[in-house]
Specification:
This protein has 4 helices and no strands. The chain has 114 residues and is mainly α. It has one domain. Keywords: Membrane, Transmembrane, Transmembrane helix.
């Protein structure tokens, strides 16, 4: 008889998938926030960055640090979606699509660090 401690996350591919979606939701939400700020803020780039960072606490008032945190969440999502490729169901197709999407988000974030 299996106990609750015997059940691991590897036995539930949907838990991994939705954890990956949750990890990817953070960078996507911040990218959407940046797009909104860039479109609605008058002034230069400094004013846009200042408005973008206003939603964060004082210890996160650094755009480069926020981007590295986004990259960490995107990397975690990428690994979780990659682990879903061993399935032979509809789950595999979703994992491939989300793997590509998280890869594109990761490349976008790497580009913003340049």
């Amino acid at each position: 008889m299996k106990t609750e401690s015997d059940v691991s996350i590897t036995q539930s591919p949907w838990k991994r998938f939705f954890t990956g979606v949750a990890c990817l939701a953070i960078p996507v939400a911040l990218i959407a926030w940046w797009i909104y700020v860039a479109e609605t803020t008058m002034g230069g780039q400094a004013a846009r960055v200042e408005r973008f960072l206003n939603i964060f606490p004082s210890f996160l008032q650094n755009a480069q640090l926020v981007t590295w945190i986004q990259l960490a969440f995107t990397g975690a999502a990428f690994m979780l979606f990659f682990s879903g490729l061993v399935q032979k169901t509809f789950h595999k197709a979703l994992s491939i699509a989300m793997l590509g999407f998280s890869g594109l988000i990761g490349l976008w974030l790497l580009f913003t660090l340049m």
